[in-house]
Design goal:
This protein has a two-stranded antiparallel ribbon. It is mainly alpha-helical. It contains twelve helices and two strands, in the order ααααααααααααββ.
Length: 266
């Protein structure tokens, strides 16, 4: 066995400890991951609510602290990743980097409104949260279709709202805050169409067309999957496949006759 520099030994021990916390099966590791999930949930809620208001000095300091924590956590995940480039350029990784930049960059370039809105991309982090929860919670595993659809719906709504806000604020007097953009987005997606807020300019009109054509159909699809999931949890007694169509009579994997309890069709 060869001697290694103390600094290298410390770095190796640190990576082992980080890997243990992120991937270990002990109570300490599980509590650490639950703590990360809780922190993510609280900060996502803060970003959504905070987008409705102008930035304050107290918010600035808090957001700097959150940005530093995000950066440290991102570096920790990167240090134990076997495919670091894939980790960085994964949609969730890119969303993390954009959010970190939006939190730390205002100290250099000013707290620009579009940077604050980009923090809604942190909702993409919900996919990673969901993956971790699925491995730790029976409730999540049993209702993962509904939870995943809700996550998709929230991400879709707030990203579309961010695009509307960034493209219209300052040019459209009807959209002066994130709330106005959210109101327009929901009114359009639900086909309510009050008409009191409309997008202006050629770009705004094209954006509205895209939301109407693609957004409404996707929105309705997500709503449908929330209230009527495509698959339900039921374990096949023969092969163990644990998710099947609601009206399945046979297992698609092995052909075993299934006896799924349903309420029937109307």
């Amino acid at each position: 066995m060869t001697d290694t520099p103390s600094s290298a030994g410390f770095g190796q021990r640190l990576r082992i400890q980080i890997d243990f916390l992120y991937n270990g099966a002990s109570t300490q590791a599980r509590n650490f991951r639950w703590g990360l999930l809780a922190f993510d949930g609280i900060t996502i809620l803060y970003f959504v609510i905070g987008s409705f208001f102008q930035s304050l000095d107290s918010q600035y300091l808090l957001e700097q602290a959150i940005g530093i924590i995000y950066l440290l956590e991102f570096c920790a995940r990167l240090s134990i990743s076997k495919k670091r480039l894939r980790e960085i350029f994964h949609p969730v990784g890119l969303a993390d980097l954009i959010v970190i930049a939006s939190l730390l960059a205002p100290s250099l370039v000013g707290n620009l409104s579009f940077l604050r809105v980009l923090r809604s991309l942190r909702l993409l982090r919900s996919y990673r949260m969901f993956k971790n929860l699925r491995g730790q919670s029976t409730f999540v595993r049993l209702h993962e279709d509904i939870i995943f659809s809700i996550i998709n719906l929230l991400v879709f709504i707030f990203v579309i709202t961010a695009i509307v806000y960034v493209s219209q604020v300052g040019a459209n007097p009807a959209i002066g805050s994130y709330v106005d953009a959210l109101y327009f987005t929901i009114a359009t997606l639900t086909t309510t169409g009050f008409g009191d807020i409309t997008l202006i300019g050629t770009g705004g009109h094209l954006l509205a067309v895209l939301i109407m054509i693609f957004g409404i159909s996707l929105f309705l699809r997500l709503i449908q999957t929330i209230f009527r999931p495509g698959k339900i949890p039921y374990e096949c007694p023969t092969c163990g496949l644990n998710r099947h169509d609601i009206d399945a009579v046979h297992c698609k994997h092995c052909g075993q006759v299934l006896r799924i309890t349903t309420e029937g069709s109307n």
